[in-house]
Write a structure and sequence with these properties.
Elements lengths: L26 H8 L14 H5 L10 E9 L11 E10 L2 E7 L6 E8 L16 H17 L3 H4 L10
Antiparallel strand pairs: 1-2, 2-3, 3-4
């Protein structure tokens, strides 16, 4: 998380720094929008092109960025990967980062990492989820909305539904 998204588009975008929380599914529609191309309805994500090209865009900014980590799943007889395992999902908001990781065998929660990015910007000291249930629940609710928007496997299979209110 916290990977910078850099765009250089002389004559179209003025140089600036922005705190937009952009999720991976938003990259393609944003780039298509910046190019002035039509965005197919089948494309996941949201175009934030207006935020880059207009100084006073009224477009609503996302509350958080979705984190997705998949690893190799099942393999065929030749050893070719034929599926993936949805290992981790998370959310980065202006203040907090939460990442949930599954146990591969049980598909239950293996690890929950919660950080207060304002007081711990380098994420050196994870917070105990048990000590911050209200923040944890808010972040899980926000993540559920983003997982639904992305039509992610966690949403489709209601993974960790005892934590994430789909």
């Amino acid at each position: 998380m916290n990977v910078p998204f850099l765009i250089r588009y002389p004559g179209h975008i003025d140089p600036r720094i922005d705190n937009l929380l952009l999720s991976t599914p938003d990259i393609m529609p944003t780039l298509l929008g910046l190019c002035g191309l039509e965005i197919p309805q089948t494309v996941q994500g949201t175009s934030y092109a207006d935020l880059f090209t207009r100084q006073t865009s009224q477009m609503k900014r996302p509350e958080g960025a979705l984190y997705i980590k998949n690893i190799d799943g099942e393999k065929d007889a030749k050893g070719k990967v034929i599926s993936y395992f949805p290992l981790s999902r998370g959310i980065k908001t202006e203040r907090y980062t939460l990442a949930l990781t599954l146990d591969r065998k049980s598909r239950k929660l293996k690890e929950a990492l919660l950080y207060d990015d304002k007081n711990d910007p380098y994420q050196m000291n994870p917070l105990r989820v048990e000590d911050m249930p209200e923040i944890f629940n808010i972040l899980c609710s926000q993540m559920a909305r983003l997982l639904k928007q992305a039509d992610d496997l966690w949403y489709k299979e209601k993974i960790l539904s005892n934590y994430i209110p789909y």
